[in-house]
Design brief:
This protein is α/β, with parallel strands linked by helices. The protein has a single domain, classed as Rossmann fold (3-Layer(aba) Sandwich), CATH 3.40.50. It contains five helices and seven strands. Helix 2 packs parallel to helix 3. The longest helix has 12 residues. It is globular.
């Protein structure tokens, strides 16, 4: 059974010129130290350990040799499809995936988590980022909700459904005005 419900533009995408990096936000990875992580489809700050491909090709992704991937659910499913067809070989993938969503987009469902697990055999964490790429919330390692960035409440005023806040020690520290370390 194929997982291809779409065309595969990753086979022929052309890289556009990168945006100015001064205003770009960096990827916050759920583990420390952060592995070499390729960011797909998001205008985030690039650095030697975090190559960013707003548009990407198989050749670019393979040459980056990422240990982890971050991107939209659509991009990650596309990578999985290319791997299943043996067009894309990412032997170095061994760290959790980060699925990035915007406020108002559907959160990852349990079936999305399960699907990505079946396709990659790697844990999956979700991040919610603003339109400007700013990290607003990230999924707790305990899978019991989300942690919110200190400046997220201003962004959360929009009439959208926000995920449940996690009740672990990290979340409790933020209630005491001790802003948690954004990872």
């Amino acid at each position: 059974m194929s997982i291809l419900p779409f065309s595969l533009p990753g086979l022929w995408r052309q890289t556009e010129s990168p945006a100015a990096t001064a205003a770009l936000h960096r990827l916050e990875y759920p583990l420390d130290p952060m592995p070499r992580t390729a960011v797909l489809g998001w205008p985030l700050r690039s650095d030697p350990r975090t190559p960013v491909f707003e548009t990407w090709s198989v050749k670019q992704l393979e040459s980056a040799r990422p240990q982890a991937l971050a991107g939209s659910l659509k991009d990650l499913i596309e990578v999985a499809a290319l791997r299943e067809m043996r067009v894309l070989k990412l032997r170095s993938l061994s760290y959790p995936l980060v699925v990035i969503t915007r406020p108002g987009e559907p959160r990852l469902s349990e079936s999305d988590h399960d699907r990505l697990w079946r396709l990659f055999r790697l844990p999956v964490f979700e991040q919610i980022r603003g339109l400007d790429g700013r990290l607003l919330a990230w999924e707790c390692e305990s899978r019991d909700g989300f942690h919110f960035a200190p400046d997220a409440p201003a962004q959360m005023a929009a009439p959208i459904e926000w995920p449940k806040q996690c009740n672990c020690e990290l979340a409790l520290a933020s209630e005491l005005d001790e802003a948690p370390r954004v990872r």
